[in-house]
Each structure stands twice: as C-alpha cells, then as structure tokens.
From TrEMBL:
GO cellular component, one term: plasma membrane
Single GO BP term: adenylate cyclase-activating G protein-coupled receptor signaling pathway
Domain G-protein coupled receptors family 1 profile: 64-334
Transmembrane segment boundaries: 51-75, 87-112, 132-153, 174-201, 221-251, 272-295, 315-337
Keyword annotations of the record: Cell membrane, G-protein coupled receptor, Glycoprotein, Membrane, Receptor, Transducer, Transmembrane, Transmembrane helix
InterPro entries according to UniProt: GPCR_Rhodpsn (IPR000276), GPCR_Rhodpsn_7TM (IPR017452), Prostanoid_rcpt (IPR008365), Thbox_rcpt (IPR001105)
Coarse class of the protein's main subcellular location: membrane
Protein name, per record: Thromboxane A2 receptor
Subcellular location: Cell membrane
Membrane topology: Multi-pass membrane protein
Length: 379
C-alpha cells in the first residue's frame, strides 16, 4: 500500500537577548509572539531516506506482483482441472488487486513526500486527495482479506466435500463472488461520503486514514469497529478453514495404503500450502493495524488517551507500514510455494533427514509432477 518514514523538523531561530527595561520586555513579547506564529507555519521536510524507502517499496511491490501475475496467468492458461482453475482465478484477482493497491496509494504518498507533507495544523482538514487516499487504503486493505477468506472457504469445501464442491463452484459463480467482494469493499470505502465516518491526515502528514485520534465521534467509532471487525473476522474464518483443510489432507495421507493412487490430491496440497502462506502473511501484516485502530478510536472517543497520544500515533504508523508489506509478500507466496519449488524442498528435506521407508516416505515427490499429466478434464 505505502511506506512511511519520520520527518526532520527545521531548527527554530534563537530568541533575542533579554533586557531589563519595560521597552525591552515589550520587545521580547513581540518577538516571542512572532516566533510562535513562525513556528506554527514552519513546514517539515521529509528525509531523503524516507523518500528512498517509499520508492524502493513501490518498486519491489510492483516487480513482485508482475512476476507472480505472469506465473499465475501462465498456469491458468494450462490448467484443465476445474478446482485448480477456480483457485487460480481467485489468486490472479488477488495479485491484480495487490498490484493496483500498491501502485495507486504509493504514488499518492510519494507525491505528499515530495511536496513536503501536510503540516500538523491541517491534519483535521480533508481535501480530495485525502478522501481518495483514505478510501483507497480501506478498499485495497479489505479486498485481500476478503479474497483470502473466500479462497480458504472454497478450498475447505473442495477438500472435505469434493462432490458438493464440484456441483456448487463454477467459474461463473467465482466471478460473481469476486464482484461481490469488490463491491462490499468499495461500499465500506465510500461510507464517509455519506457522513458515516471520516478520513483525515495522519502523523507525520504523508498518509490519510479513518479518523481515530482526534475529535472522534460515534460514527468514527462505528466505522473503525466495522472496518476492523470485518478484517479480523476474515482472518479468523481463513484460519479455521485452512486448519480444517490441512488436517483433512494430513489424515488422508496417513491413511493411504502403500502403492495406492494418490496423485489426485497433490494439487490440493499445493493450494492449501499457498493459502496457509497467504493467511500467515495477512495475519502478521494486518492484525496490528486493525487492533491499533480499535484501541486508538476507543480511547480517543472516551477521552482516556491523554498523554499516550504520541504513542498511539507511533503505533498507527508502525501498523500501516507493516500492512504495506502484505501486498509485497502475497506475490512471493505464489512465486516460492509452487509445486516445483515444494518438490525440491521436499527432496532436500528427505535426503537430509534420511527418512526413506518411514511414514514421510509416503509423500512421494513424484506426486507433484505426475498429477499434472494424469488430470482429467473436468471443465
């Protein structure tokens, strides 16, 4: 989404030398008043390291998503198994969403950096750029979480109830599900347009998000609770579904008789491993921002934030920085956790552990390549 950095404030001019006469006191008062006004309008300049961090983050995210998109599109064009094609359709849509969600907000943040950012006095203002940037963060934040949840639920149904899955899940319904996800996330992002919440500039003045720290109202609390609640619920559902899928596949492997046909389940293993990778990345990257947002808005609304305001500003900045990495890590799940890579990792692990003939020996590496050749056209 974006990368943030701290600012270096400009140095303040020295106060004039104090004198003892009344005229000197008046002169000092005028000087102090002028100094305060000058300080209020002194802009902060972003550090060079911060600008470099934004550029590197954008470059890495864009390149990673392009590589992953190329791999997924190529795999989708060669895939004939319907369950695998559905998964690849979800995955391709997720990578495209991550790509756009990394490029657009990142470009806006970079523009704010280069323009010197927004001064603290203007944090409460909400211009068109702030509205668009805040809405983009909400939209492109919820979409990956919703898609990860939908993919986990689809795979859980495919692993536990394959017959029901084959009758219910089709490409058309998958596309409808994707459209509903995008529409739901867009509806959430547009709530401030109907006075149901608001977007404001956040410290250090280079990004916009839901108002959680100053002059919060009931609608702001409701907006944050809805945003964080939907995000955390998606992560919880994905965790449950992926756990069920993983346990089911492990039990099926352990119960398999030696020499029996097993290639039909190899594609399920690959997809579940990738889903677990997506879920772990999403939990690590998004949970802090979702939780910090809830904590901040509740304490701000109840008036108990007090002297901890600076700490909560720091937590929010840390949370959004971490969330930005989700769109960088997601594509690497598909790049690194592919069948060929998993097969090589398995071979290396098996050779080092020396577990030939044991239970782990049932996980033959030939199951990965052979399944592609023996798959039946079910489309």
């Amino acid at each position: 989404m974006l990368a943030l950095s701290h600012y270096n404030s400009s140095a303040s001019p020295l106060l004039p030398r104090l004198v003892n006469d009344s005229g000197g006191k008046a002169e000092v008062m005028v000087a102090v008043e002028g100094l305060l006004q000058q300080r209020n309008f002194t802009s902060v300049e972003p550090t060079t390291s911060g600008i470099i961090a934004v550029i590197l983050s954008m470059t890495l995210g864009i390149i990673s998503n392009i590589v992953a998109l190329f791999i997924l599109v190529n795999a989708y064009s060669l895939q004939r198994r319907r369950s695998k094609a559905t998964f690849l359709l979800f995955a391709t849509s997720l990578v495209i969403t991550d790509f756009i969600g990394h490029a657009i907000p990142g470009a806006l943040v970079l523009r704010l950096y280069l323009s010197g950012g927004v001064s603290p006095e203007d944090f409460d203002s909400s211009d068109g750029m702030c509205q668009f940037l805040g809405g983009s963060m909400v939209f492109f934040g919820l979409c990956p979480l919703f898609m990860g949840c939908a993919m986990a639920a689809e795979r859980c149904l495919g692993v536990t109830k394959p017959l029901l899955h084959s009758s219910l899940v089709t490409k058309t319904r998958t596309k409808i599900c994707l459209a509903v996800i995008w529409l739901l996330a867009l509806s959430m992002a547009l709530l401030p347009c109907f006075q149901l919440g608001s977007y404001t500039y956040q410290d250090p003045g280079t990004w916009c998000f839901i108002n959680v720290l100053s002059d919060t109202e009931e609608v702001d609390v409701a907006f944050v609770v809805l945003f964080s609640g939907l995000g955390l619920t998606s992560l919880a559902v994905a965790l449950v579904c992926n756990t069920i899928s993983g346990v089911t596949l492990v039990l099926a492997r352990l119960r398999r008789q030696p020499g029996s046909h097993h290639s039909a389940k190899s594609h399920d293993i690959e997809m579940v491993v990738q889903l677990v990778g997506i879920m772990v990345a999403s939990c690590i990257c998004w949970s802090p921002l979702l939780i910090f947002g809830l904590m901040s808005v509740i304490r701000s609304y109840t008036g108990t934030i007090g002297d901890d305001l600076s700490n909560y500003k720091t937590l929010m900045v840390m949370g959004v920085r971490l969330a930005a990495w989700n769109q960088i890590l997601d594509p690497w799940v598909y790049i690194l956790l592919r069948r060929t890579v998993l097969r090589k990792i398995y071979l290396i692990t098996k050779c080092q552990a020396g577990l030939r003939g044991t239970i782990l020996g049932r996980w033959e590496p030939t199951s990965y390549p052979s399944s592609e050749k023996n798959e039946v056209n079910q489309v």
